[in-house]
Amino acid sequence: MAYSCASVTAKIAAPADKVWELAGSFANLNAITVGVITSCDVDKTGTIRKIKVKGEKGTITEQLIKYDSQTMTQIYRILNRPNNIVPFKNYTATIKVKATGRSSTIVWSARFEPKKGQTAAGCQEMAHGVYETGIAGVKKKLGLDKPKKKAAAKPKAKAKPKAKAKPKAKAAKTKPKAAAKAKAKPKAAAKAKAKSKAKARAKKK
Questions:
Q1: Count of Cβ atoms closer than 10 Å to residue 186 Cβ
Q2: Counting beta carbons within 10 angstroms of the beta carbon of residue 95, is it exposed (0 to 12), middle (13 to 18) or buried (19 or more)?
Q3: pTM of the prediction?
Q4: What confidence tier does 25 reach under pLDDT thresholds 50, 70, 90?
Q5: Domain range for 136
């Protein structure tokens, strides 16, 4: 079966040497893969490690091929043994850290052959899961996984209550009694004039 590849690249807002100290440690893989790798036992030579995966009974045996602190490069491989629980064979992986200004870039990649009955996509999915967990673990150890605080929303200004309309002044009503008296005055004056004329006529006779 043909070889397949898997790779994850991530930028980390931390100096390369700090990232390499965590990602490049062959003996402390479980420190950055919490929740996936439950144990990582290294032999006396420091080049062979046996890994136990959470929820799995078997182990994975890996061998360190290259460790270069100058170029910040680590190369390791999975030894093809019957009890290996991985879905691939002839697996070789590389972890490389590069300085990018004040930050750094980590590239975790591998080349492998899927075992009989396994697919390249399934193998890549497993590999990506391990690499992403490891990179997330590096960020957590460096204190870079804290969620950003959301800016507090400004309280909305309360709408000013509308001024109540002043009640319209009621139109003054003319008092009916006063109006009646006003109408009665001209009639009384007319009667008085008529009486005085009648008296004047009576005198002349």
A1: 8
A2: buried
A3: 0.70
A4: very high
A5: 4-141
